[in-house]
Design brief:
Elements (H helix, E strand, L loop, with lengths): L18 H5 L5 H14 L15 E7 L18 H8 L2 E7 L5 H10 L3 H4 L16 H7 L3 E5 L17 E3 L18 H14 L4 E7 L10 H6 L4 H22 L6 E7 L19 H4 E7 L6 E8 L3 H9 L13 H4 L10 E5 L1 H6 L4 E6 L2 E5 L4 E4 L15 H15 L12 H9 L20 H19 L3 H14 L4 H13 L3 H13 L5 H13 L3 H14 L4 H13 L3 H14 L4 H13 L3 H14 L4 H13 L3 H14 L4 H14 L1 H14 L2 H21 L1
Parallel strand pairs: 1-5, 1-6, 2-8, 3-4, 3-5
Antiparallel strand pairs: 2-7, 6-7, 9-10, 10-11, 11-12
Helix pairs in contact: 7-9, 16-17, 17-18, 18-19, 18-20, 19-20, 20-21, 20-22, 21-22, 22-23, 22-24, 23-24, 24-25, 24-26, 25-26, 26-27, 27-28, 28-29, 29-30
The chain binds zinc ion.
The site of zinc ion (ZN) has 5 residues, from loops.
């Protein structure tokens, strides 16, 4: 990665000019001079916040996902959704204009925690990128400075595997609880669960500590608790914000009552906003208007004078500001600057330019890449149909001035070129299938496009294509609500409209596969291959699905060719290994799975498959070893838990086996092998206890795959009923 030094030059300290001086400029020179002198004499720093004013304090850092400023009373809302945050804001520094650099969770958090633009930290999308292990972050910096560090995240998009976990002693990304919709239980958890975990940790932490809480509730789909849905029936998004406010507020009250806030610097920050239909966008990630780029930032510390800072500031400024206040030296290269001197008026503030991008549609669907810059109140969006807005008179960005203000466009373009130069060419490997599946369930598209066009015209502009983004979005929400047929119909429609889109075919195939229509999923992908689509992600998915339908020879043929073409494609080796294993080619299988671990030493899936392989060959102890490693990497790995249950059953240790199967089912309600194993094991000793599991298996297990087992479960239920 190319690194530049800190481009935003630190302004040299100069005497501030009180505004009275300019207002008096028309008065006679002598009088003006006298008055200016008086004004200067009277001028004092409003209350100085020295560098390191809060040295040694704890840092409580709260990011609220998908938070629009206009839902907060302190930022102008009348809806009374956020009484706690509003009270906090009145006692804090409230930054009025805060800009994200990407309207997506992982890229935005990476900029917050590294003080770098996406062009510098290289994380341009959720799921397909990992934060480089060589980048210092807020967490590594504070840990090096002696802080105890704990992270408590609300959703899989920030899972430890994406690399923000470095520098944290504890990285709690266990998504065990979620209101309703059990099928996605492992992907996100509500604010109260995140807060409870953080609160336990803070209760035991020694000072100074740094705790980061990520609260995901306001992210779509909006499913607030019923009482808040009733209170704010016309704004379910706002009701989610209200839930976060109430949960966070109660927590801060408890900390305050325990006297634990006085020694703590507190930050509440949004990662990006939400479009809510503005500019035709439903949620976020496709466009980069202020509805998704602007976020709230509230900074509180005992002794910090409450004020509103109305100039434009950036996500990259957060980390240098906090480190400055805490007296911890920042890493050498940061893009942002500390805002501390400006809070006191020591130095006159001039907003530096702020880079932004929204590249998910480019990366996953080969639409035109969207980048841009905000400078001196103007926003330039670089696209085939370019846009320029004057944000002060036109905050909703309705009047495109691009054709009128050519001089300004040229200047902003130069700044944008300067920032973009040195950016890595964006190229990414497809993520593993499990990651893709989890991110799809949260509504993200993740399969990277290969063989991009490189040249884009108006037909590739996201403004022309936004209804397709919205359709993906709607389909994934319907799917999450269990309205799978409606979702599949929308995906079919997208395939019809975008027949050259690999992502469209993969989304449709994924939805079919998830509903048990695996043969149809295979047919969709094979059709795509016949039509000439041949990117790695699509072929890899086809290989995995062929494996699921038991077409082992076909799988081997496809994947052998794929890994010849892409020798570093770990996922391909993994599925090839599984296919060899099922064909009884154990030595080949082992070789492929070990190759996966060469490429990706933290592949829980490879350990899991090596474990299964050992199990199938009766090497139980070796199996336990591999499966335990899988579990150590991914504590929620339900297939490893199922395998460990199986291994202990083989060792005759039924109570332990039952415990593992229970954990497997708890971790992933869709782990039907474990569910069936658990029911069978229980039926042996305590048939009554087995009944609810058998009933659930009959009700929920996909009929196509588990037909025989479902029949068996039905028979057992009849026996149990007769026995009663
Ligand atoms: Zn987010």
């Amino acid at each position: 990665m190319s690194r530049r030094g800190n481009r935003s030059e630190k302004k040299s300290a100069s005497l501030p000019r009180p505004s009275s001086r300019t207002r008096l400029a028309f008065v006679g020179l002598a009088i003006a001079a006298v008055i200016t002198a008086v004004a200067l004499a009277l001028w004092r720093p409003r209350q100085s916040v020295a560098h390191g004013a809060f040295a040694g304090r704890n840092l409580l850092f709260v990011t609220i996902d998908t938070l629009r400023p206009d839902r907060l009373g302190s930022y102008g809302s009348n809806a009374e959704l956020t009484p706690h945050l509003d009270r906090l804001a009145s006692e804090s520094v409230r930054f009025e204009h805060v800009l994200a650099h990407a309207p997506l969770t992982l890229p935005a958090h990476t900029s917050i925690f590294t003080s770098l633009y996406p062009t510098e930290h290289g994380v341009h999308d959720n799921g397909t990128f990992r934060v480089s292990a060589s980048l210092p972050t807020l967490a590594t910096t504070l840990q090096d400075a002696g802080y105890q560090t704990g992270a408590f995240v609300g959703a899989y998009v920030l899972d430890a595997r994406f690399g923000l976990n470095r520098g944290f002693d504890v990285y709690d990304d266990y998504y065990g609880e979620k209101r309703g919709f059990l099928s996605f239980a492992q992907l996100e958890r509500p604010a109260d669960a995140v807060v409870a975990s953080a609160e336990r940790w803070i209760g035991k932490a020694r000072s100074p500590w740094f705790a980061w809480m990520h609260l995901y509730d306001a992210h779509a789909p909006y499913r607030p608790p019923p009482e808040l849905a009733r209170k704010f029936p016309d704004d379910l998004y706002g009701a989610e914000v209200a839930f976060v406010d109430a949960t966070l507020g109660a927590f801060l009250d408890r900390l305050s009552a325990a006297g634990r806030l006085d020694g703590t610097v507190l930050v509440v920050l949004g990662d990006h906003g939400e479009s809510l239909g503005e500019h035709g966008e439903r949620t976020h990630g496709t466009f980069a208007y202020d509805s998704t780029l602007r976020v709230p930032w509230i900074l509180w510390a005992k002794g910090l004078r409450p004020q509103v800072f109305s100039e434009a500031v950036r996500h990259v400024d957060v980390m240098p500001t906090l480190l400055d206040l805490l007296s911890v030296p920042p890493p050498e290269s940061t893009e942002g600057q500390s805002l501390r001197p400006y809070l006191t008026g020591e130095i006159r503030y001039e907003a530096p330019p702020s880079y932004f991008e929204a590249l998910n549609p480019h990366l996953t669907q080969d639409w035109a890449p969207l980048t841009g810059i905000v400078q001196a109140g103007h926003k330039l969006i670089r696209l085939p149909m370019p846009e320029l807005y004057d944000l002060a008179p036109d905050p909703k960005e309705k009047e495109n001035l691009y054709r009128q203000k050519t001089g300004l466009v040229r200047r902003l373009s130069e700044t944008l070129d300067e920032i973009s130069a040195g950016s890595d060419a964006v190229s990414v490997a497809p993520p593993d299938r499990e990651t893709v599946a989890k991110l799809r369930a949260l509504g993200y598209l993740t399969a990277p496009v290969q063989n991009r066009k490189g040249e884009y015209t108006e037909v590739d502009d996201p403004k022309r294509l936004i209804d397709i983004s919205n359709a993906y979005n709607e389909a994934s929400e319907l799917f999450g609500e269990g309205r799978t047929e409606e979702a599949i119909a929308i995906f079919e429609d997208i395939v019809g409209r975008q027949p050259r889109s690999s992502e469209a075919h993969q989304s449709l195939a994924y939805a079919l596969h998830q509903t048990g229509r695996i043969a149809e999923a295979v047919a969709i992908l094979e059709g795509a291959v016949r039509s000439g689509l041949s990117d790695t992600a699509l072929l890899g998915l086809l290989g995995a699905y062929l494996l699921d339908v038991g077409e082992l020879e076909k799988t081997v043929g496809l994947l052998e060719e794929l890994v010849r073409r892409e020798p570093d494609y770990a996922e391909g080796h993994n599925y090839l290994g599984i296919a060899y294993g099922r064909l009884g080619r154990f030595a080949d299988a082992r070789k492929e799975l070990e190759r996966v671990l060469d490429l990706d030493p933290s592949s829980a899936s490879a350990y899991n498959n090596l474990g299964s392989l050992a199990l199938s060959q009766g090497r139980i102890e070796e199996a336990v070893d591999h499966l335990s490693r899988a579990l150590a990497i991914d504590p929620g790995a339900a297939t490893a838990l199922n395998g460990l249950g199986f291994a202990h059953a083989r060792l005759g240790e039924m109570p332990r086996a039952i415990e593992y199967w229970r954990r497997a089912v708890e971790s992933d309600p869709g782990q039907f092998d474990a569910l069936f194993n658990l029911a069978l094991a229980l039926a042996d000793g305590s048939p009554g206890e087995a009944v609810p599991y058998l009933e659930r298996f009959v009700r929920e297990a996909p009929a196509q795959r588990y037909r025989a087992d479902i029949e068996k479960a039905r028979a057992m239920l009849r026996l149990a009923a007769d026995g009663r």
